[in-house]
Design goal:
The structure holds 2 protein chains of 2 kinds. By secondary structure, chain A is an alpha+beta fold. In chain A, the strands form 2 sheets. In chain A, strands 1, 2, 3, 4, 5, 8, 9, 10, 11 and 12 form a 10-stranded mixed β-sheet that branches. Chain A has a two-stranded antiparallel sheet with strand order 6-7. In chain A, helix 1 packs across helix 2 (70-77) and helix 6 (150-161) crosses helix 12 (331-341). Chain A is built from 14 helices and 12 strands. By secondary structure, chain B is α/β, with parallel strands linked by helices. Chain B has an 8-stranded mixed β-sheet, sandwiched between helices. In chain B, helix 17 (452-464) links the parallel strand 16 (441-446) and strand 17. Classes of the chains: A alpha+beta, B alpha/beta. Chains A and B meet through helix 5 and helix 9 of A and helix 8, helix 9 and helix 19 of B.
Chain lengths: 403, 654
């Protein structure tokens, strides 16, 4: 079958607000986060929404405010044409990226001309695990899968690789510096949609969590987060899965882990003919994607395999990629990606990542892919690769190429 | 005797369960009583459980048969019929209720108890759970989290603490009137909370985030405690988790499904066979031996072992005389007893009066003559042949002709010590384990000339202490120490092969052994192991070469003697211990690294093979003895049912 080319025409995101009651976006309902973006996307492209074949939204904790297919509901709530359907999906942290990949696959197959892929997560309102799930709340499943929380997984990665606390903290501080510089230089402006309330009052127009003064010495003083739950029993589970470890070195803490935030993002994808019809300029092509499963206890090590799989599909190698984005779920995930792939750290997460700006689970994939595209354009480079590890031992990769 | 009766008087039905025990007869009678209650025209029914508490109130042979499942279903159904009687069902708790009796009490619509009355489900200690709806009732009465912790603890708690108690009364006499009063208040609409439309979960509903977080951590907490070897804990968790998401009747049906799975698991069968068949049999046979009861015990040496033996003897009702060289030394036995009894009082395990009686039975002195009228004299001095010889020859003439002289040696052949005695037929070995008050095994070592009547005496004495006696023939290290050493040596041999030390230690734990082999060697101290090896060689026996080499290298090249010196295979510091970094460089790494599972199997197989040799050589008398001694003596995994049961199920060798 002849595949259609898949183009990225535009993308938008909200700023990321602290994912707590004190956060600037706490009072904004998740459906409003999507409304802000759907409205902006329609307006800035003068989009005839009846031409959009689907809205695919990544959302991890899809219950309560975010339940009952928030994608379709947001479409209707935002006054988009009622003929546009919507669907939510959950590939844990890679949900946003997967939304883009599935939209791309549909367009490539000819089963849609224009599709909006996106993600939303209000972690202040719907904390992680609010949706329960057999994975960890069913004791039989939990035991059989040797479930440990992701923080323990990250500590296993660090223990096995022998990463030091200092290495992790340095990486984390650098993420803040890069994000701060990019933010100050206005690199994010093009795609960032400020969030206002119904009265037009500005709630947030920049990422709330970036700390320009972050340094390894300061965050070096933070207490590791997972010692307590490790002692409770998760360390025993971890060591039974990785018996080469005498004990788990608990090195991750709030400063070198992704921040908990609220936010949403959308990306408009389509084939060539719909772009012409709607008068849109194609910015890049999605040329490949892949998802893999990996060992679920260590959980977060699938990125290199997903990367290889995505590159092999289009006969590319690591050196054909100009910029890399690996989601900074935890500092050890990025360091493990660097040491496994051997890529140059200078080409990785050049504008910082989730440690500095936060990781609104369902939305981050779109934010990272979009930021990558903006940066490829700014630097006038050709290809970029974004990769996300995900819960229960998975990873998803997307490769884009500018046109 | 199990009895169930239903009688009616003054418009009240009285359902009385005397010493309920889970067996066919009980269930049949219970069903009949429930039918009687249904058929009767009483206004309300009052349930009372009477009789002595017995922790293992179930028919083990029944549990091991397929018939149990139908019987359990019948009992669960009957309980449900009872609680849906449409008339008030009250339970009175005049005293402690456990197990099957508590299952019935939970089916009542309300409970009236005295404040201090303890309730418990000791089932978990036998690898079992209350399977007939009690898990679901408890969760719906006390809350999900309290139910989980109570059911998995196996401990008792007051009914009030669990929120099971509608009303407390201060005296026995108030129980029945108060129950009747409550019954009238409940009136005709007496239903269980879970049978009402407006049912609310106590504390937190199954969807509450605190419960989600509890379930996240529960399997890991259980794994840490059990190593994944004791399925009952996981079963309780699953019954609770799954049952709290179902309607009540489906939840009980689901419990019965898990009950079937649990009872078919080899671990459960091994545990209940050991606890419910082998152990009681051994104890019954010991008690049945024709021997005069040991009334007066003499203990020579008030060290760790001597003081412990004196304490357990006094606790068992014997009058005890402890002898040591100096009054101060002898007094150690009293101090030990005092501090033990103090702790037991704090834990409310013994009354102050009873503790005083125990102390009153204990005499500490330097006077050898005080031993004169003892039925049983046990020497527990250092493992020094000359010292023992001196004591035997000096003390024996003071004793009556029929008194038994026992040595608590763990290394010296009994026959060789009996040679110093003028009455070798009255000489025997009694190998207690440390700490004596905790360890439940005693090896009885038969010398060449030991009389059968003396052996009977020893059995009766050990049984009186409520410890498990196992008869062992006189050979080097007897039975337990001999087999136990193979575990330690196998761990050292793996290290010599160049296997990874971290993995060896994980393998020990994976195997289910209480302490990993290298940590264990550190605990014993490498110097002691070296001494044992030297003695073994001195006696002309073979010492495992690999283990010997590891010990020698550690001691002579690295000066690492074990935990006491702070440096052994581990480095010890105030925060804990960590494997010594040099342990990896002791020997070249193995060209074929073994998996943890393979090493774990080897660590168990060497013990199984050695135990089989002991049986073949007649060191132990039979497989039951070998199995129970392995579990109680050196902590061979209970879930395997003991060392030879493991061999039978896992390591068939020729």
């Amino acid at each position: 079958m002849q595949c259609n080319e898949v183009y990225i025409y535009d993308w938008v995101r909200t700023p990321r607000g602290r994912g707590k009651r004190s956060g600037a976006l706490y009072r904004v309902k998740p459906v409003q986060l999507l409304q802000v973006l759907l409205t902006a996307l329609q307006q800035r492209n003068q989009l005839d929404t009846s031409c959009v074949d689907d809205v695919i939204i990544g959302c991890v904790t899809a219950c309560g405010d975010q339940g009952a297919n928030i994608a379709r509901i947001a479409v209707l709530f935002s006054d988009w044409h009622e003929s546009t359907p919507g669907v939510t999906l959950n590939r844990f942290c890679a949900s946003g990226l997967e939304a883009c990949n599935i939209a791309a696959a549909k367009i490539a197959a000819g089963w849609g001309e224009a599709i909006v892929a996106g993600g939303v997560e209000s972690m202040s309102r719907m904390p992680i695990a609010t949706d329960g799930g057999a994975w960890y709340i069913d004791p039989e499943v939990n035991r059989k899968l040797s479930f440990v929380p992701q923080g323990i997984s990250a500590d296993i990665i660090a223990s096995l690789a022998g990463f030091t606390r200092r290495q992790l903290d340095e990486f984390a501080a650098a993420s803040h510096h890069k994000a701060h510089q990019a933010s100050r230089a206005g690199f994010f402006q093009r795609s960032l949609i400020p969030v206002q309330d119904g009265n037009g009052k500005l709630l947030l127009d920049r990422d709330e969590m970036i700390r320009p003064d972050c340094n390894p010495e300061e965050i070096g003083k933070l207490k590791p987060s997972f010692i307590g739950i490790g002692k409770l029993g998760f360390d025993a589970v971890a060591c039974s899965r990785y018996p080469q470890l005498e004990k788990i070195a608990h090195l991750h803490h709030p400063g070198n882990s992704s921040a908990i935030v609220d936010g949403a993002a959308l990306m408009l994808l389509g084939n060539a003919s719909i772009g012409k019809k709607l008068g849109l300029r194609a910015r890049a092509r999605i040329i490949s994607s892949a998802s893999v499963g990996s060992e679920p206890t260590i959980m977060l090590t699938g990125n290199p395999a997903a990367t290889s799989k995505a590159l092999a599909t289009v006969n590319l190698s690591l050196k054909d990629i100009d910029l890399f984005e690996v989601n900074e779920a935890f500092a050890a995930v990025a360091l493990q990606y660097l040491s496994t792939t051997g890529i140059d750290a200078q080409h990785l997460n050049v504008n910082g990542g989730a440690i500095a700006m936060g990781h609104p689970l369902g939305a981050t994939g779109v934010m990272v892919l979009g930021t990558l595209l903006d940066e490829l354009e700014r630097r006038d480079l050709r290809r970029g690769l974004a990769t996300f590890c995900a819960g229960a031992g998975m990873a998803t990769t997307t490769v884009i190429e500018r046109v | 005797m199990t009895e169930v009766s239903f009688t009616s008087a003054d418009n009240f039905g009285h359902l009385v369960l005397a010493s309920p025990r889970f067996e066919e007869k009980f269930v049949a009678r219970f069903e009949q009583a429930v039918q009687d209650a249904v058929a009767s025209d009483v206004a309300a029914v009052i349930v009372t459980v009477t009789g002595k508490i017995s922790p293992a109130a179930f028919d083990v042979k029944l549990l091991l048969s397929e018939e149990v499942f139908a019987l359990s279903a019948r009992f669960a159904r009957s309980l449900r019929t009872l609680e849906m009687l449409d008339r008030p069902l009250l339970a009175t708790l005049p005293h402690a209720v456990q197990g099957i009796g508590l299952e019935v009490v939970l089916a009542a619509h309300a409970r009236v108890a005295l404040p201090e009355v303890q309730v418990g489900f000791p089932e978990v200690n036998f690898g079992l759970l209350p399977a007939h709806g009690a898990v679901q009732r408890l969760a719906r009465l006390s809350g999900i989290e309290p139910a989980l912790s109570f059911l998995t603890s196996g401990r008792t708690a007051t009914a009030a603490m669990l929120g099971l108690c509608h009303t407390r009364v201060e005296t026995q006499d108030e129980l029945l009137p108060r129950a009747k009063e409550l019954a009238l208040q409940l009136g005709e609409n007496a239903h269980q909370p879970w049978d009402r439309r407006e049912f609310r979960w106590p504390q937190a509903s199954p969807d509450d985030f605190t419960i989600t977080k509890m379930w996240m951590a529960t399997p890991a907490m259980i794994f840490k405690k059990t190593g994944g070897h004791y399925p009952v804990y996981d079963t309780i968790a699953s019954c609770l988790y799954e049952g709290t998401r179902l309607d009540f009747d489906s939840a009980v049906a689901n419990d019965l499904y898990h009950w079937q799975r649990l009872l078919r698991a080899p671990a459960t069968r091994n545990i209940i066979t050991m606890q419910g068949i082998i152990r009681p049999q051994i104890m019954q046979r010991a008690v049945a031996r024709p021997a005069p009861a040991t009334q007066r015990v003499g203990v020579i040496g008030a060290g760790m072992m001597g003081a412990g033996i004196a304490l357990v003897s006094a606790l068992a009702g014997c009058r005890v005389v402890v002898i040591d060289r100096e009054a101060e030394l002898a007094g150690a036995a009293r101090r030990r007893a005092e501090s033990y009894l103090q702790r037991q009082q704090e834990r409310k395990k013994i009354t102050a009066a009873a503790a005083q009686e125990v102390l009153a039975r204990l005499t500490c002195t330097t006077e050898h003559e005080s031993l004169a009228d003892c039925d049983m004299v046990i020497e527990a001095v250092y493992e020094d042949r000359a010292l023992k010889k001196d004591l035997i020859t000096r003390i024996e003439p003071l004793l009556s002709a029929r008194s038994v002289f026992a040595s608590n040696t763990s290394t010296l052949p009994i026959t060789s010590l009996a040679a110093y005695s003028t009455r070798p037929h009255n000489f025997i070995g009694l190998h207690f384990f440390s700490p004596v008050e905790k360890m439940q095994l005693v090896e009885i070592i038969k010398g060449k000339e030991t009389d059968a009547a003396v052996i009977d005496c020893a059995f009766a004495y050990v049984a009186k202490l409520q410890k498990v006696p196992v008869l062992v023939n006189d050979a080097r290290y007897f039975y337990t120490s001999r087999v136990f050493m193979t575990y330690l040596c196998a761990g050292l041999a793996l290290l010599r092969e160049g296997q990874d030390a971290v993995m060896i230690e994980h393998a020990g734990r994976r195997a289910g052994m209480p302490v990993a082999p290298l940590a264990l060697t550190d605990e014993l101290s490498l110097s002691l192991v070296q001494q044992i090896f030297a003695q073994t060689r001195g006696d002309g026996a073979e010492v495992p070469a690999a283990a010997q080499e590891v010990i020698t290298v550690m001691l002579e090249q690295h000066d690492r003697s074990g935990k006491k010196s702070g440096r052994g295979f581990y480095d010890y510091h105030h925060k804990g211990k960590q494997l010594w970094s040099g342990v990896r460089d002791l020997f070249p790494p193995a060209t074929q690294p073994l998996s943890v599972a393979t090493m774990a199997q080897r660590l168990l197989d060497v013990q199984a093979d050695e135990a089989q040799r002991c049986l073949d050589e007649g060191i132990v008398q039979n497989a039951d003895d070998a199995n129970i001694a392995s579990v109680l003596g050196w902590g061979f995994p209970l879930f395997h049912g003991g060392v030879l049961q493991y061999r039978k199920q896992n390591a068939p060798r020729t």
